[in-house]
């Protein structure tokens, strides 16, 4: 079980790679920079090859006037510079070359830091409003420290591309394409490798890790690209990434409250405290009307309540008559023992398949000290007497109780009809 728990932890780590605030905690391919272009030119690659690489790569170009002049001076052609400008058209936001004044650069810095596990640096690019909700220590504590060759093999395949940044006053919205391994496929492989085999033996966690690492270190790893939107806000010291941790905190608190209410509701339902359970489920649905469990259980409870109220309204037509304590023997054999006797009469218009009588045994002070349930009418496939109680019918009963009561019993008892079931 311990090995399986660790394997499942590995699954959680792999599947949780994409979560980091409103971003993701994974490594990425290096963005193409001005220095890379210069190196490619000096290496003698053709303009056509360099332009194709620009079109296929994540970019982080410096396209300020000074930077363009420097590119031209070292021999970068106009065609390549134009390709750099075209690729950056939707990314470049007018401003100076300082990181904080350019939302694209801020987002790139944030993503690069978070994706490479530099979480203290990541926190620097988070908005002041977010920092008021979550301290640096709290943020660092949330980051996963688990590592394995498998996760390293996977994260090396991940990349992102900032497609467009739209600035509106002191706010900006950035669309980012994230290309990651297809975890739906990988998850199946992890389960297939980690679950108990037909012989009841578990594969060693290291063996599983090694096997999957070998499988995914090649270029055939399944990939999927998803779109994600980031919000940025302009503050006194420049642009920051707004992750809306306040809403995240409220959602987490709501989730905890919902889970607590569901737990209470389940317990009340189990105890047959139906009205209490119904109230808890109503509270859950007020917080989140889409919780399937709450809606289904509420529907079941409403049916149970309706059935309960229907039975309670009919019980008044069932008379418990002639109840008394006397002496009797089991199957007419042996010495007489303390026993209870009586009859039930159906004064209503419906046939019953079950009538439950609860008997309360009294102590010397007249208060109950024990109770037992008896079924003078019980129609089941295992019953000796499978006759239902039809309208107007009478059923007599007698049960030996000598071995059911404590020694403090006074010899007195009282009883009531406590439950019925209708014959369908």
Structural commentary:
With 424 residues, the chain is an alpha+beta fold. It folds into 3 domains: 2-243, Nuclear Transport Factor 2, Chain: A, CATH 3.10.450; 249-314, Serine Threonine Protein Phosphatase 5, Tetratricopeptide repeat (Alpha Horseshoe); 318-422, Immunoglobulin-like. The chain is 42% helix and 25% strand. The chain is built from 15 helices and 10 strands. The chain has helices at 2-15, 34-42, 47-56, 65-73, 78-87, 103-115, 119-124, 128-131, 136-142, 149-155, 183-194, 205-216, 245-270, 274-287, 292-315, and strands at 159-168, 171-181, 223-235, 238-242, 318-330, 333-346, 352-362, 368-378, 394-400, 412-422. The strands form 3 sheets. A 4-stranded antiparallel β-sheet has the order 1-2-3-4. Strands 5-6-9 form a 3-stranded antiparallel β-sheet, with no helix packed on it. Strand 5 and strand 6 (333-346) form a beta hairpin. Helix 10 packs parallel to helix 12 (205-216) and helix 13 (245-270) runs antiparallel to helix 14. The radius of gyration is 37 Å and the shape is elongated.
Brief description of this entry?
The chain has three domains: 2-243, Nuclear Transport Factor 2, Chain: A (Roll); 249-314, Serine Threonine Protein Phosphatase 5, Tetratricopeptide repeat; 318-422, Immunoglobulin-like. It contains 15 helices and ten strands.
Topology:
Elements: H1 2-15, H2 34-42, H3 47-56, H4 65-73, H5 78-87, H6 103-115, H7 119-124, H8 128-131, H9 136-142, H10 149-155, E1 159-168, E2 171-181, H11 183-194, H12 205-216, E3 223-235, E4 238-242, H13 245-270, H14 274-287, H15 292-315, E5 318-330, E6 333-346, E7 352-362, E8 368-378, E9 394-400, E10 412-422
Antiparallel strand pairs: 1-2, 2-3, 3-4, 5-6, 6-9, 7-8, 7-10
């Amino acid at each position: 079980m311990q090995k399986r728990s660790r394997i499942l932890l590995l699954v959680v780590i792999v599947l949780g790679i994409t979560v980091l605030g409103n971003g993701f905690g994974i490594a990425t391919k290096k963005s193409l920079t001005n220095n890379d272009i210069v190196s490619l030119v000096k290496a003698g690659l053709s303009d056509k090859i360099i332009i194709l690489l620009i079109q296929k790569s994540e970019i982080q170009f410096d396209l300020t006037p000074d930077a363009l002049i420097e590119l031209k001076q070292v021999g970068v052609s106009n065609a390549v510079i134009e390709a750099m400008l075209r690729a950056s058209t939707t990314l470049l936001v007018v401003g100076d070359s300082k990181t904080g004044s350019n939302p694209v650069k801020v987002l790139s810095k944030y993503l690069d830091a978070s994706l490479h596990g530099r979480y203290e640096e990541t926190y620097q690019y988070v908005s002041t409003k977010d920092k008021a909700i979550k301290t640096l220590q709290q943020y660092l504590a949330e980051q996963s420290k688990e590592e394995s060759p498998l996760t390293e093999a996977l994260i090396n395949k991940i990349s992102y591309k900032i497609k467009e940044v739209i600035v509106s006053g002191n706010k900006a919205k950035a669309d980012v394409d994230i290309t990651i391994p297809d975890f739906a496929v990988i998850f199946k492989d992890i389960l297939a490798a980690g679950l108990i085999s037909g012989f009841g033996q578990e594969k060693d966690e290291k063996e599983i890790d090694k096997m999957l690492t070998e499988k995914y270190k090649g270029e055939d790893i399944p990939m999927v690209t998803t779109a994600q939107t980031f919000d940025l806000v302009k503050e006194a010291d420049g642009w920051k990434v707004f992750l809306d941790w306040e809403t995240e905190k409220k959602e987490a608190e709501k989730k905890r409250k919902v889970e607590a209410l569901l737990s209470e509701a389940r317990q009340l339902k189990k105890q047959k405290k139906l009205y209490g359970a119904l109230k808890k489920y109503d509270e859950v649905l007020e917080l989140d009307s889409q919780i399937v469990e709450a809606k289904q259980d509420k529907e079941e409870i409403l049916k149970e309540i309706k059935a309960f109220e229907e039975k309670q309204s009919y019980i008044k037509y069932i008379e418990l008559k002639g109840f008394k304590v006397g002496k009797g023997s089991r199957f007419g054999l042996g010495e007489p023992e303390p026993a209870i006797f009586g009859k039930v009469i159906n004064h209503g218009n419906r046939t019953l398949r079950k009538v439950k009588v609860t008997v309360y045994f009294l102590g010397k002070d007249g208060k109950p000290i024990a109770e037992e349930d008896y079924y003078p009418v019980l129609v089941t496939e295992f019953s000796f007497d499978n006759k239902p109680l039809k309208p107007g019918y009478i059923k007599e009963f007698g049960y030996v109780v000598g071995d059911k009561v404590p020694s403090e019993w006074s010899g007195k008892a009282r009883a009531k009809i406590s439950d019925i079931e209708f014959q369908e």
